[in-house]
Write a structure and sequence with these properties.
This protein has helices spanning 35-44, 46-75. The protein has 84 residues and is mainly α. The chain starts with 34 loop residues before the first helix and ends in a 9-residue tail after the last helix.
Length: 84
């Protein structure tokens, strides 16, 4: 009886396609897409990239401003040089 799981085409059975292998996570170059694909992806999702980065920037700026305002209200200028 022929082995159906055989991966060679020696006439004993049908040729089975090998399963696709996941990328090797230990090889960093396997995770970096080629430059043309990366450029296409960035152009396709430019609105989402711009919105996400502006949201993060505004959130960090607002938090920093709140911390500065709170420190100034509670401790005055000395609060900025007090240390941790």
């Amino acid at each position: 009886m022929p082995d159906l799981h055989k991966q060679s085409n020696d006439g004993d059975g049908p040729l089975q396609k090998p399963k696709p292998q996941p990328p090797n996570l230990l090889n960093p170059s396997a995770l970096i897409p080629n430059p043309q694909r990366r450029k296409h992806w960035a152009k396709q999702y430019r609105t989402e990239i711009a919105a996400s980065s502006s949201s993060l920037l505004s959130t960090f700026a607002a938090h920093f401003a709140d911390c500065v305002r709170h420190t100034f209200k509670t401790e005055g200028f000395k609060g900025f040089w007090r240390g941790m």
